[in-house]
Amino acid sequence: MTVATETHAEHDHSHDDHAQHGMSNAGYIRIAIILAAMTGLEVSTYYVDFGSLFLPVLLVLMVVKFFVVVSYFMHLKFDNKLFSFCFYAGLFLAVMVYVIALASFKFFAA
Amino acid sequence: MSDVAVHEADHGTHGHTTSTGLSNNKVAMWLFLGSECLLFGGLISTYMLYRGRVSIGPRPGNVFDIPFTSVSSFILLMSSLTMVLAVSAAQNRDDRGTTLWLTVTALLGATFVGGQVYEFTAMYNEGLGFTTSLFGSSFYTLTGFHGVHVTVGIIMLMSLVGIIKRSTVPGDKAEVVELIGLYWHFVDVIWIVIFTLVYLIPA
């Protein structure tokens, strides 16, 4: 019975974890509205001349959108750090490998 | 002991103990997504290198329909919202809400794939075949791989809807929905990168 009680306790704890995952549905909708607004700003660069800010604005928006989805919709911000390590290790490795590969092909040379 | 057995049968993975204290399925999914970063990183890098290599056929600026692709991108982005609402419903043990949001997500994904098929057809009619130029090859390979990922996601979503309706998911449905949700959101974040680097930043 003791074992059973402990298992129930773990189970309840696990459901508490689900609740801590985060956000209410209204919160998710707010995040989606922010993402939609950022997408609108991205698309506006096609119609409006941003001058020298064109590239930095697009790259910053891309990175922010990426991390907002990963952090909030994929719950990485609220989840165990091991999950973050599994994902960001792959992401970091990919970015490093391909930045070096592109640099070796003189991709970044003006 | 029988209480434990019944409890574990009811709640599936919740009764299991892992060395990390975490769900092995979830760790595996995150590792898989980490490895997918390398796959798409390679495809995106290849496109970046070859997008200017056009000896014959149209150049990127001549074939991209930015307004159309912007709408497709918005649809895929909103499918991430409906997916997270499905996960939320599953965590609240709301089967009806879960199946509803999963179905909406699959429909939005299908709309995106339909848009991609239309885009590919239009580009082909404008003279950009798979072997026309290095730009064409790398573009179709990158966006085609992404489209296949979305299609696989749609198949998983619809399979999950069928499984939930038959109530044959053993244990906690929320984790199963969450795992497929992670895959779906990943497909979305990859498109966020592709949309900017491929479509919005000119060659």
Automatic annotation (TrEMBL), chain A:
The keyword Nucleotide-binding does not apply. Pfam families: COX4_pro. It is found in: Cell membrane. Keywords: Cell membrane, Membrane, Transmembrane, Transmembrane helix. Signal peptide: none annotated. Residues 1-20 are annotated as: Disordered. Residues 7-20 have a biased composition (Basic and acidic residues). It is a multi-pass membrane protein. InterPro entries: Caa3_sub_IV, Cyt_c_oxidase_su4_prok. GO terms for cellular component: plasma membrane. The chain crosses the membrane at residues 28-47, 53-73, 85-109. This is Unannotated protein. It comes from freshwater metagenome.
Automatic annotation (TrEMBL), chain B:
Residues 1-203 form the Heme-copper oxidase subunit III family profile domain. Keywords: Cell membrane, Membrane, Transmembrane, Transmembrane helix. PROSITE patterns: COX3 (PS50253). One of its GO terms (molecular function) is cytochrome-c oxidase activity. One of its GO terms (biological process) is aerobic electron transport chain. InterPro entries: Cyt_c/ubiquinol_Oxase_su3 (IPR024791), Cyt_c_oxidase-like_su3 (IPR000298), Cyt_c_oxidase_su3-like_sf (IPR035973), Cyt_c_oxidase_su3_a-hlx (IPR013833). GO terms for cellular component: plasma membrane. The chain crosses the membrane at residues 27-50, 70-87, 99-118, 138-164, 176-201. The keyword Ribosomal protein does not apply. It is a multi-pass membrane protein. It is found in: Cell membrane. Signal peptide: none annotated. Its main location: membrane. PANTHER family: CYTOCHROME BO(3) UBIQUINOL OXIDASE SUBUNIT 3, CYTOCHROME C OXIDASE SUBUNIT III. Belongs to the cytochrome c oxidase subunit 3 family. This is Unannotated protein. It comes from freshwater metagenome.
